[in-house]
Amino acid sequence: MISSLKVFDKLDCQVKISYRPESKFAEASKKFKIEAFVGISFGKDSTESTFVISEGSQLNRDVTMFLRQYNAFEKDGIWRIRRETREPDVSVEIARDILGVPSAVLTDMWLSEGCYRAGFVFHHSHLKQVSDVLTRHEMNKSNLIIDYLGPTEGFASIFNRINSEMELYVAEVRHTAPAEELKSPVNPTGPRWFRILKNPYGSYAPIGIYITDRPPEESPLVTPIAREGIYMANSDNSYSKYMNREANERKVVTIGRFHDFSNPDFRVTVFMPAILAKEWLEIWDSSLDTFSSWKPSLEAFLPFSEWSMDDRIAAYGAS
Predict the structure, then answer these.
(1) What gap in Å lies between CA 130 and CA 70, rounded to an integer?
(2) 50 - beta bridge partners?
(3) Bridge partner list, 196
(4) What are phi and psi of 153, to 5 degrees?
(5) pLDDT tens for each residue of the chain, 319 residues long
(6) Is there a contact between 201 and 240 (Cβ–Cβ < 8 Å)?
(7) 43-69 residues labelled b (16+ CB within 10 A) or e (exposed)
(8) Which one, of 258, 287, 256, lies nearest residue 272 by Cα?
(9) Is 154 left (phi over 0), alpha (psi -120 to 50) or beta?
(10) Domain residue spans of the chain
């Protein structure tokens, strides 16, 4: 539905990091060979991490006991661990600090046998800020390894790589935004834009990177990033806030959330682990009554391997 993921490749730099924190949780996950995809939600006073256990993890009796020790829960055969931290924790502080760079977007985060791996994209104008964050954590002995820092491989390649490690699903939704959703502060960036959420699992108030060829009005909600029409902005969009809240409460981790707005047409493309696709669909279904005025329509829901960018361009590029 997004006319092309390539528009987001204006975020033209990428960093991949790995780090092995010294913690009982990390050591236990190493001992039991836990493989998990990680979603992070940043609150005012705490950070919550959700670990979606890979179907490839060997869940014997000892592993199950470990999971329950860390308040894991199981639904439809899928195990998830919810961890809330109120004190500084290197496992999340590195990600928080990188996302503090205005143009930075989290692409993926994993826990693999006690080692965290995370990827981010950002605009080249913020290379020094990202480098400063990495240097600070290296000096603080965070066991940080910089696996890659350079030009981005592009979102198409990023999702192909993630899909090779964990099967993905894609949902495409189309809405007609009500009049009250079209003006600032709900929509601070005008009548035509593309947006990617900085943290796909997110925070209560969505924060996104906007790409537009029409400079928005000056607003404290909007931070200019680059002359190429790139901005960071908070959104008070009620639909996005609802989906964020429900996903966080139900621990349904998403991987990429892309928005395409052309007044009043609001299109959403979501990438998610295939094992959570059914639960995401339940959340979307729960939104229908509340957001009936948006005229929601589910236009695609399929495995990533069957989702073709060329088909999306052909179907929607002229609309």
Answers:
(1) 32
(2) 39, 82
(3) 209, 258
(4) -80, -10
(5) 455 688 999 999 999 999 988 888 888 889 888 889 999 988 777 788 999 987 656 677 888 888 888 888 888 888 999 888 876 677 788 998 999 999 999 999 999 988 999 999 999 999 999 999 999 988 776 688 999 999 999 999 999 999 999 999 999 999 998 888 777 777 878 889 999 999 887 665 678 999 998 888 788 889 999 988 999 998 777 888 889 889 988 999 999 999 999 989 999 999 999 999 999 999 999 999 999 999 999 999 999 999 975 444 334 443 4
(6) no
(7) eeeebbbbbbbbeebebeeebeebbee
(8) 256
(9) left
(10) 13-164, 167-316
Q: What residue type is 159 in one-letter code?
A: F
